[in-house]
Amino acid sequence: MHLTREEEGIYDGEQGWAYQTAMRMLVKLGDLFGATRLIRIESSHISGVSYKTIGDAPVEFLEALIQAGAKSKVAATANPAGFDYGHLAEMAAMPGIQDRQLKIIDLYERMGVNPVLTCTPYYVRKPRRASHLAWAESSAVTYANSLLGSWTNREGAPSALAAALIGKTPDCGMHRPENRQANIFIKVKTNPANEAEFGALGIYLGKMLKDKVPVIEGLGYPKETDLKQLGAAMASSGMTSIFYPNQSCAKQSGRLESITVERKELKEASESLSTTREEPDMVFVGCPHCSFNELKQIAQNIKVKKVGEGLRFWVCTSRHVRERAKPYVDVIEHAGGVVISDTCAVVTWLKELGVDTLMTNSAKTAYYAPTLNGVGVTFASLARCIKAVCRE
Ligand code: F3S
To answer: What is the Cα–Cα distance from 61 to 339, expressed in whole angstroms?
Structure first.
Protein backbone atom coordinates (compact mmCIF):
# COMPACT_ATOMS: atom_id res chain seq x y z
CA MET A 1 0.00 0.00 0.00
CA HIS A 2 1.16 3.49 -0.74
CA LEU A 3 1.09 5.73 2.35
CA THR A 4 1.43 9.52 2.40
CA ARG A 5 4.21 11.01 4.51
CA GLU A 6 1.75 11.84 7.26
CA GLU A 7 0.33 8.30 7.22
CA GLU A 8 3.84 6.86 7.33
CA GLY A 9 4.58 9.01 10.35
CA ILE A 10 1.51 7.66 12.13
CA TYR A 11 2.52 4.13 11.13
CA ASP A 12 5.95 4.73 12.71
CA GLY A 13 4.42 5.99 15.94
CA GLU A 14 4.87 9.78 15.58
CA GLN A 15 1.37 10.38 16.97
CA GLY A 16 1.59 7.77 19.70
CA TRP A 17 0.69 4.15 20.28
CA ALA A 18 -3.09 4.41 19.80
CA TYR A 19 -2.93 5.88 16.30
CA GLN A 20 0.03 3.68 15.38
CA THR A 21 -1.98 0.59 16.35
CA ALA A 22 -5.01 1.78 14.37
CA MET A 23 -2.86 2.60 11.32
CA ARG A 24 -1.08 -0.74 11.43
CA MET A 25 -4.43 -2.52 11.60
CA LEU A 26 -5.71 -0.67 8.52
CA VAL A 27 -2.51 -1.24 6.54
CA LYS A 28 -2.56 -4.94 7.38
CA LEU A 29 -6.17 -5.22 6.18
CA GLY A 30 -5.44 -3.13 3.10
CA ASP A 31 -2.49 -5.35 2.15
CA LEU A 32 -4.61 -8.44 2.67
CA PHE A 33 -7.43 -7.22 0.43
CA GLY A 34 -5.38 -5.56 -2.31
CA ALA A 35 -5.83 -1.88 -1.39
CA THR A 36 -3.32 0.57 -2.84
CA ARG A 37 -4.04 3.50 -0.53
CA LEU A 38 -6.18 4.84 2.28
CA ILE A 39 -9.22 6.98 1.53
CA ARG A 40 -11.07 9.47 3.73
CA ILE A 41 -14.34 8.36 5.30
CA GLU A 42 -17.37 10.40 6.27
CA SER A 43 -18.31 8.27 9.27
CA SER A 44 -17.71 5.06 11.14
CA HIS A 45 -20.25 2.81 12.84
CA ILE A 46 -18.90 0.52 15.51
CA SER A 47 -20.33 -2.85 16.55
CA GLY A 48 -19.14 -4.87 19.54
CA VAL A 49 -20.93 -2.82 22.18
CA SER A 50 -23.27 -5.27 23.93
CA TYR A 51 -21.63 -6.82 26.99
CA LYS A 52 -23.66 -9.95 26.28
CA THR A 53 -21.92 -10.51 22.96
CA ILE A 54 -18.38 -9.25 23.71
CA GLY A 55 -17.91 -9.82 27.47
CA ASP A 56 -14.83 -8.33 29.15
CA ALA A 57 -12.34 -9.19 26.39
CA PRO A 58 -11.97 -5.78 24.71
CA VAL A 59 -12.10 -3.62 27.86
CA GLU A 60 -8.35 -3.64 28.53
CA PHE A 61 -7.60 -2.75 24.91
CA LEU A 62 -10.13 0.10 24.86
CA GLU A 63 -8.71 1.45 28.15
CA ALA A 64 -5.19 1.36 26.74
CA LEU A 65 -6.33 3.26 23.64
CA ILE A 66 -7.90 5.98 25.79
CA GLN A 67 -4.79 6.26 27.96
CA ALA A 68 -2.79 6.73 24.80
CA GLY A 69 -5.06 9.60 23.76
CA ALA A 70 -7.29 7.91 21.14
CA LYS A 71 -10.05 10.13 19.70
CA SER A 72 -12.22 9.56 16.68
CA LYS A 73 -11.40 11.85 13.73
CA VAL A 74 -14.81 11.44 12.08
CA ALA A 75 -18.44 11.13 13.16
CA ALA A 76 -18.61 7.74 14.85
CA THR A 77 -21.65 5.92 16.23
CA ALA A 78 -22.19 2.79 18.34
CA ASN A 79 -24.37 -0.29 17.81
CA PRO A 80 -26.91 -1.49 20.43
CA ALA A 81 -25.87 -2.42 23.95
CA GLY A 82 -27.26 -5.10 26.28
CA PHE A 83 -29.70 -2.88 28.21
CA ASP A 84 -32.18 -0.08 27.83
CA TYR A 85 -31.39 1.91 30.96
CA GLY A 86 -34.72 3.70 30.67
CA HIS A 87 -36.55 0.38 30.96
CA LEU A 88 -34.49 -1.52 33.50
CA ALA A 89 -37.63 -3.02 35.05
CA GLU A 90 -38.27 -4.71 31.70
CA MET A 91 -34.74 -6.07 31.35
CA ALA A 92 -32.87 -8.88 33.04
CA ALA A 93 -31.03 -6.17 34.93
CA MET A 94 -28.26 -7.96 36.80
CA PRO A 95 -26.48 -5.16 38.72
CA GLY A 96 -22.84 -6.28 38.17
CA ILE A 97 -23.46 -6.73 34.49
CA GLN A 98 -25.13 -3.32 34.19
CA ASP A 99 -21.96 -1.68 35.50
CA ARG A 100 -19.78 -3.52 33.02
CA GLN A 101 -22.07 -2.54 30.15
CA LEU A 102 -22.01 1.09 31.25
CA LYS A 103 -18.23 0.96 31.35
CA ILE A 104 -18.01 -0.23 27.72
CA ILE A 105 -20.35 2.55 26.58
CA ASP A 106 -18.33 5.08 28.57
CA LEU A 107 -15.04 3.89 27.02
CA TYR A 108 -16.38 4.36 23.50
CA GLU A 109 -17.83 7.73 24.41
CA ARG A 110 -14.48 8.92 25.74
CA MET A 111 -13.02 8.16 22.32
CA GLY A 112 -15.63 10.42 20.74
CA VAL A 113 -18.04 7.66 19.67
CA ASN A 114 -21.63 8.86 19.87
CA PRO A 115 -23.58 6.29 21.94
CA VAL A 116 -26.66 6.27 19.71
CA LEU A 117 -26.77 2.53 20.49
CA THR A 118 -28.68 1.59 17.36
CA CYS A 119 -28.16 -0.62 14.34
CA THR A 120 -29.98 1.97 12.20
CA PRO A 121 -27.57 4.96 12.44
CA TYR A 122 -28.96 6.09 9.05
CA TYR A 123 -32.22 7.11 10.77
CA VAL A 124 -30.20 9.34 13.09
CA ARG A 125 -28.02 10.90 10.42
CA LYS A 126 -28.19 9.83 6.79
CA PRO A 127 -24.77 9.54 5.09
CA ARG A 128 -24.32 11.36 1.81
CA ARG A 129 -24.72 9.51 -1.49
CA ALA A 130 -21.35 8.21 -2.77
CA SER A 131 -19.64 9.01 0.54
CA HIS A 132 -17.13 6.44 1.83
CA LEU A 133 -17.92 4.95 5.25
CA ALA A 134 -16.42 2.35 7.57
CA TRP A 135 -19.46 0.68 9.07
CA ALA A 136 -19.70 -2.52 11.02
CA GLU A 137 -23.20 -4.05 11.56
CA SER A 138 -24.04 -6.01 8.45
CA SER A 139 -27.67 -4.84 8.20
CA ALA A 140 -26.56 -1.19 8.18
CA VAL A 141 -23.87 -1.99 5.60
CA THR A 142 -26.34 -3.49 3.10
CA TYR A 143 -28.74 -0.61 3.74
CA ALA A 144 -26.06 2.05 3.20
CA ASN A 145 -24.68 0.48 0.02
CA SER A 146 -27.99 -0.57 -1.53
CA LEU A 147 -30.56 2.01 -0.46
CA LEU A 148 -28.47 5.11 0.26
CA GLY A 149 -25.79 4.75 -2.41
CA SER A 150 -22.99 5.13 0.14
CA TRP A 151 -19.86 3.01 -0.07
CA THR A 152 -18.78 0.78 2.80
CA ASN A 153 -17.20 -2.57 3.42
CA ARG A 154 -18.58 -4.86 6.04
CA GLU A 155 -16.23 -3.90 8.85
CA GLY A 156 -15.62 -5.71 12.11
CA ALA A 157 -15.62 -3.79 15.40
CA PRO A 158 -11.79 -3.38 15.52
CA SER A 159 -11.44 -2.19 11.91
CA ALA A 160 -14.38 0.24 12.24
CA LEU A 161 -12.77 1.69 15.37
CA ALA A 162 -9.35 1.89 13.69
CA ALA A 163 -10.92 3.69 10.72
CA ALA A 164 -12.65 6.13 13.09
CA LEU A 165 -9.34 6.95 14.82
CA ILE A 166 -7.49 7.52 11.55
CA GLY A 167 -10.48 8.96 9.64
CA LYS A 168 -9.64 6.70 6.69
CA THR A 169 -10.11 3.17 5.41
CA PRO A 170 -8.28 1.00 2.83
CA ASP A 171 -9.49 1.52 -0.74
CA CYS A 172 -10.67 -2.04 -1.42
CA GLY A 173 -13.83 -4.13 -1.72
CA MET A 174 -17.00 -2.02 -1.82
CA HIS A 175 -14.93 1.17 -2.10
CA ARG A 176 -14.06 0.27 -5.69
CA PRO A 177 -16.65 0.66 -8.46
CA GLU A 178 -15.70 -2.62 -10.16
CA ASN A 179 -16.61 -4.60 -7.02
CA ARG A 180 -20.04 -2.98 -6.81
CA GLN A 181 -21.15 -4.20 -10.23
CA ALA A 182 -23.98 -6.73 -10.24
CA ASN A 183 -22.78 -10.22 -11.18
CA ILE A 184 -25.92 -12.31 -10.75
CA PHE A 185 -29.55 -11.80 -11.78
CA ILE A 186 -32.37 -12.91 -9.49
CA LYS A 187 -35.83 -13.25 -10.96
CA VAL A 188 -38.42 -13.44 -8.18
CA LYS A 189 -41.53 -14.99 -9.70
CA THR A 190 -43.72 -14.52 -6.65
CA ASN A 191 -44.34 -11.18 -4.96
CA PRO A 192 -43.32 -11.24 -1.29
CA ALA A 193 -46.56 -10.45 0.55
CA ASN A 194 -45.19 -8.61 3.59
CA GLU A 195 -42.01 -7.61 5.44
CA ALA A 196 -41.55 -11.14 6.83
CA GLU A 197 -41.57 -12.65 3.35
CA PHE A 198 -38.99 -10.09 2.22
CA GLY A 199 -36.86 -11.29 5.13
CA ALA A 200 -37.39 -14.95 4.26
CA LEU A 201 -36.37 -14.19 0.67
CA GLY A 202 -33.23 -12.55 2.06
CA ILE A 203 -32.32 -15.64 4.10
CA TYR A 204 -32.79 -17.84 1.02
CA LEU A 205 -30.75 -15.56 -1.24
CA GLY A 206 -27.98 -15.01 1.33
CA LYS A 207 -27.33 -18.76 1.46
CA MET A 208 -27.30 -19.05 -2.34
CA LEU A 209 -25.29 -15.94 -3.14
CA LYS A 210 -22.53 -15.88 -0.52
CA ASP A 211 -20.77 -12.61 -1.48
CA LYS A 212 -22.16 -12.15 -5.01
CA VAL A 213 -23.78 -8.85 -6.02
CA PRO A 214 -27.37 -9.46 -7.14
CA VAL A 215 -29.81 -7.50 -9.26
CA ILE A 216 -33.22 -8.58 -7.99
CA GLU A 217 -36.25 -8.25 -10.23
CA GLY A 218 -39.88 -9.04 -9.41
CA LEU A 219 -40.16 -7.50 -5.96
CA GLY A 220 -43.32 -5.57 -6.83
CA TYR A 221 -43.46 -2.22 -5.04
CA PRO A 222 -41.46 -2.76 -1.88
CA LYS A 223 -41.45 -0.26 0.96
CA GLU A 224 -38.14 1.01 2.30
CA THR A 225 -38.62 -1.22 5.35
CA ASP A 226 -39.25 -4.31 3.17
CA LEU A 227 -35.86 -3.74 1.54
CA LYS A 228 -34.31 -3.17 4.96
CA GLN A 229 -35.58 -6.63 5.99
CA LEU A 230 -34.37 -8.19 2.73
CA GLY A 231 -30.86 -6.76 3.08
CA ALA A 232 -30.52 -7.54 6.80
CA ALA A 233 -31.55 -11.15 6.19
CA MET A 234 -29.26 -11.58 3.16
CA ALA A 235 -26.34 -10.32 5.22
CA SER A 236 -27.21 -12.76 8.04
CA SER A 237 -27.20 -15.99 6.05
CA GLY A 238 -24.57 -14.84 3.53
CA MET A 239 -21.88 -12.22 2.93
CA THR A 240 -23.84 -9.89 0.65
CA SER A 241 -22.93 -6.22 1.17
CA ILE A 242 -24.92 -4.71 -1.69
CA PHE A 243 -27.93 -5.54 -3.84
CA TYR A 244 -29.85 -3.75 -6.58
CA PRO A 245 -33.61 -4.06 -6.16
CA ASN A 246 -35.90 -3.93 -9.19
CA GLN A 247 -35.53 -1.81 -12.29
CA SER A 248 -32.33 0.13 -11.66
CA CYS A 249 -29.97 -2.55 -12.98
CA ALA A 250 -32.42 -4.87 -14.75
CA LYS A 251 -31.00 -3.87 -18.14
CA GLN A 252 -27.81 -5.77 -17.33
CA SER A 253 -29.74 -8.96 -16.64
CA GLY A 254 -29.23 -10.54 -20.08
CA ARG A 255 -25.47 -10.81 -19.53
CA LEU A 256 -25.56 -12.34 -16.06
CA GLU A 257 -25.87 -15.77 -14.53
CA SER A 258 -29.45 -15.99 -13.32
CA ILE A 259 -31.50 -17.66 -10.59
CA THR A 260 -35.27 -17.90 -10.34
CA VAL A 261 -37.13 -17.88 -7.05
CA GLU A 262 -40.62 -19.37 -6.99
CA ARG A 263 -43.28 -19.41 -4.25
CA LYS A 264 -42.09 -22.88 -3.17
CA GLU A 265 -38.62 -21.60 -2.21
CA LEU A 266 -40.05 -18.59 -0.42
CA LYS A 267 -42.46 -20.77 1.56
CA GLU A 268 -39.71 -23.21 2.52
CA ALA A 269 -37.39 -20.40 3.58
CA SER A 270 -40.17 -18.90 5.68
CA GLU A 271 -41.03 -22.20 7.33
CA SER A 272 -37.38 -22.98 8.06
CA LEU A 273 -37.22 -19.89 10.29
CA SER A 274 -39.79 -21.24 12.78
CA THR A 275 -38.37 -23.73 15.26
CA THR A 276 -41.35 -24.13 17.60
CA ARG A 277 -45.14 -24.29 17.59
CA GLU A 278 -45.35 -23.31 21.27
CA GLU A 279 -47.15 -20.11 22.26
CA PRO A 280 -44.66 -17.21 22.54
CA ASP A 281 -43.58 -15.68 25.87
CA MET A 282 -42.48 -12.58 24.00
CA VAL A 283 -43.34 -11.00 20.67
CA PHE A 284 -40.48 -8.91 19.34
CA VAL A 285 -40.58 -6.41 16.48
CA GLY A 286 -37.76 -4.05 15.55
CA CYS A 287 -34.84 -5.91 14.06
CA PRO A 288 -33.25 -3.91 12.53
CA HIS A 289 -34.46 -1.10 14.80
CA CYS A 290 -37.83 0.37 13.77
CA SER A 291 -38.15 3.50 11.69
CA PHE A 292 -40.63 6.29 12.45
CA ASN A 293 -43.04 4.80 9.89
CA GLU A 294 -42.81 1.34 11.39
CA LEU A 295 -43.72 2.71 14.84
CA LYS A 296 -46.63 4.52 13.23
CA GLN A 297 -47.79 1.32 11.51
CA ILE A 298 -47.56 -0.70 14.74
CA ALA A 299 -49.47 1.99 16.65
CA GLN A 300 -52.21 2.03 14.02
CA ASN A 301 -52.51 -1.76 14.21
CA ILE A 302 -52.56 -2.04 17.98
CA LYS A 303 -54.51 1.04 19.08
CA VAL A 304 -57.83 -0.62 19.86
CA LYS A 305 -56.24 -3.76 21.29
CA LYS A 306 -54.52 -4.85 24.51
CA VAL A 307 -51.46 -7.02 25.00
CA GLY A 308 -52.53 -10.29 26.62
CA GLU A 309 -51.96 -10.99 30.32
CA GLY A 310 -48.51 -12.44 30.99
CA LEU A 311 -47.23 -11.72 27.47
CA ARG A 312 -44.46 -9.33 26.52
CA PHE A 313 -44.56 -7.19 23.40
CA TRP A 314 -41.22 -5.52 22.68
CA VAL A 315 -40.81 -2.96 19.94
CA CYS A 316 -37.16 -1.95 19.52
CA THR A 317 -35.95 1.28 18.00
CA SER A 318 -33.31 3.95 18.53
CA ARG A 319 -33.66 6.62 21.22
CA HIS A 320 -33.68 9.18 18.42
CA VAL A 321 -36.69 7.64 16.63
CA ARG A 322 -38.43 6.88 19.94
CA GLU A 323 -38.39 10.57 20.83
CA ARG A 324 -39.56 11.68 17.39
CA ALA A 325 -42.41 9.18 17.34
CA LYS A 326 -43.60 9.89 20.90
CA PRO A 327 -47.37 9.92 20.06
CA TYR A 328 -47.06 6.45 18.47
CA VAL A 329 -44.89 5.21 21.34
CA ASP A 330 -47.65 6.30 23.73
CA VAL A 331 -50.28 4.35 21.76
CA ILE A 332 -48.16 1.17 21.76
CA GLU A 333 -47.38 1.48 25.47
CA HIS A 334 -51.00 2.26 26.32
CA ALA A 335 -51.93 -1.03 24.64
CA GLY A 336 -49.42 -2.82 26.90
CA GLY A 337 -46.36 -3.00 24.63
CA VAL A 338 -42.96 -1.59 25.52
CA VAL A 339 -40.92 0.52 23.14
CA ILE A 340 -37.34 -0.33 24.00
CA SER A 341 -34.29 1.56 22.75
CA ASP A 342 -30.50 1.07 22.95
CA THR A 343 -30.77 -2.74 22.72
CA CYS A 344 -32.72 -5.57 21.09
CA ALA A 345 -33.94 -9.08 21.86
CA VAL A 346 -30.85 -10.66 20.31
CA VAL A 347 -28.16 -8.68 22.16
CA THR A 348 -29.83 -8.79 25.59
CA TRP A 349 -30.35 -11.64 28.05
CA LEU A 350 -33.63 -13.25 26.97
CA LYS A 351 -33.38 -16.46 28.97
CA GLU A 352 -32.76 -14.50 32.17
CA LEU A 353 -35.99 -12.62 31.41
CA GLY A 354 -37.81 -15.94 31.44
CA VAL A 355 -38.27 -16.03 27.66
CA ASP A 356 -38.20 -19.53 26.17
CA THR A 357 -40.21 -18.86 23.02
CA LEU A 358 -40.04 -15.77 20.88
CA MET A 359 -42.28 -14.68 18.02
CA THR A 360 -40.88 -12.15 15.55
CA ASN A 361 -41.39 -10.69 12.09
CA SER A 362 -37.63 -10.30 11.64
CA ALA A 363 -35.92 -12.98 9.58
CA LYS A 364 -32.56 -11.87 11.00
CA THR A 365 -33.71 -12.42 14.58
CA ALA A 366 -35.40 -15.71 13.66
CA TYR A 367 -32.13 -16.83 12.04
CA TYR A 368 -29.92 -15.97 15.04
CA ALA A 369 -32.07 -16.26 18.18
CA PRO A 370 -32.19 -20.08 18.43
CA THR A 371 -28.38 -20.21 18.62
CA LEU A 372 -27.45 -16.86 20.18
CA ASN A 373 -30.31 -16.76 22.70
CA GLY A 374 -31.25 -20.44 23.04
CA VAL A 375 -34.96 -19.73 22.49
CA GLY A 376 -37.56 -21.35 20.24
CA VAL A 377 -38.78 -19.03 17.48
CA THR A 378 -42.01 -18.54 15.59
CA PHE A 379 -41.50 -16.43 12.49
CA ALA A 380 -44.54 -14.51 11.25
CA SER A 381 -45.64 -11.21 9.72
CA LEU A 382 -46.25 -8.09 11.82
CA ALA A 383 -50.01 -8.60 11.44
CA ARG A 384 -49.76 -12.14 12.82
CA CYS A 385 -47.40 -11.02 15.59
CA ILE A 386 -49.87 -8.38 16.75
CA LYS A 387 -52.74 -10.85 16.55
CA ALA A 388 -50.81 -13.33 18.66
CA VAL A 389 -49.84 -10.87 21.38
CA CYS A 390 -53.19 -9.07 21.72
CA ARG A 391 -56.69 -9.70 22.76
CA GLU A 392 -59.17 -7.39 21.00
FE1 F3S B 1 -30.20 -4.58 15.26
FE2 F3S B 1 -30.35 -6.37 17.15
FE3 F3S B 1 -31.26 -6.89 14.78
S4 F3S B 1 -28.65 -5.05 16.75
S5 F3S B 1 -30.03 -5.73 13.36
S6 F3S B 1 -32.05 -5.32 16.20
S7 F3S B 1 -30.06 -8.28 16.02
So the answer is: 34
Residues of the chain whose pLDDT is less than 50?
A: none
Q: Which atom of ligand 1 is nearest to the CA of 288?
A: 5
Ligand 1 pocket, 346 CB below 6 A? yes
344 C-beta closer than 6 A to ligand 1: yes
Q: Where are the beta strands (DSSP E) in 60-180?
A: 75-78, 113-114, 132-135, 151-154, 168-170
Task: Return the ligand 1 atom nearest residue 137 CA.
Answer: 5
Q: Give me the numbers of helices (H) and strands (E) for the chain, helices first please.
A: 16, 18
Q: What is the pLDDT of residue 253?
A: 59
Sheet of 312-317, strands arranged across: 338-341, 312-317, 282-290, 357-360, 376-379
- Domains of the chain and CATH, by start: 5-176 (3.30.499.10), 181-272 (no CATH), 282-391 (3.30.499.10)
Quick: pLDDT tens for 210-247: 889 999 999 999 999 999 999 999 999 999 999 999 75
Residue 87: closest CA among 342, 377, 359:
342
Question: What's phi and psi for 134, nearest 5 deg?
Answer: -130, 85
Q: How far is the C-alpha of 164 from the C-alpha of 112, rounded, in Å?
A: 9
Q: What is d(CA 30, CA 41) in angstroms, rounded to the nearest whole number? A: 15
Q: Is 258 exposed, middle or buried (0-12, 13-18, 19+ CB in 10 A)?
A: middle
Pick from 207, 204, 185, 183: which is nearest to 263 by CA? 204
CA of residue 14 to ligand 1 center, whole Å: 39
221: CB partners within 8 A, 6+ apart: none
Name residue 175's amino acid. Answer: H
From ligand 1's centre to the CA of 49, what distance in Å?
A: 12
